[in-house]
């Protein structure tokens, strides 16, 4: 099976839909329980207790820099490796590789991105596609997601200008 056939099969069998940023996604789980926070000033109400999605990125596509309000756990499922870049509030850049650790000991099946940390994801150069899961606890909600703006991130983290220019859409 070619990579394009694998992608088509995964999109159909996992019922993935196009994502506005590129690639495909599908929510696989969302709990019916809600949680309320003891820090109400940061949150505008209760959230679902947890959620999980599949995300498929093809070569040349990426998840642009954004800032999650909660930790996100990425789980590699299929395809090639992907780089996950994180920039913390002090400007420290970290690169983790999500992929099959049996093929390369530097790859990880699971990568956690901490809350309030900017991150972006892109398939590595040799990768035709990558399928991963993303678990968010409490569950993902649009109001908890902040899209990175290129100008703002360049001002805050000028030392990472090349990466920010490449992995920010606006």
From TrEMBL:
**InterPro entries of this UniProt entry?**
Cupin_DUF985 (IPR009327), RmlC-like_jellyroll (IPR014710), RmlC_Cupin_sf (IPR011051), YML079W-like (IPR039935)
The record, for Pfam families, names: Cupin_5
**Domain DUF985 stretches:** 9-145
SUPFAM superfamilies in the record: RmlC-like cupins (SSF51182)
Q: What is this protein called?
A: DUF985 domain-containing protein
- Which species does this protein come from? Magallana gigas
């Amino acid at each position: 099976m070619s990579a394009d056939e694998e992608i088509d099969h995964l999109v159909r069998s996992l019922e993935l839909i196009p994502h506005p940023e590129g690639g495909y996604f599908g929510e696989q789980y969302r709990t019916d329980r809600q949680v309320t926070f003891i820090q109400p000033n940061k949150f505008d109400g209760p959230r679902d207790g947890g959620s999980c999605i599949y995300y498929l990125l093809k070569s040349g596509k990426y998840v642009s820099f954004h800032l999650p309000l909660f930790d996100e756990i990425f789980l590699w499922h299929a395809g090639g490796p992907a780089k996950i870049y994180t920039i913390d509030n002090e400007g420290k850049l970290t690169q983790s590789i999500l992929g099959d650790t049996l093929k390369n000991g530097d790859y990880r099946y699971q990568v956690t991105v901490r809350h309030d940390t900017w991150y972006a994801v892109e398939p590595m150069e040799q990768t035709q596609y990558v399928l991963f899961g993303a678990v968010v606890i409490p569950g993902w909600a649009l109001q908890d997601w902040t899209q990175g703006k290129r100008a703002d991130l360049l001002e805050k983290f000028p030392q990472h200008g090349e990466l920010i220019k490449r992995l920010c859409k606006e």
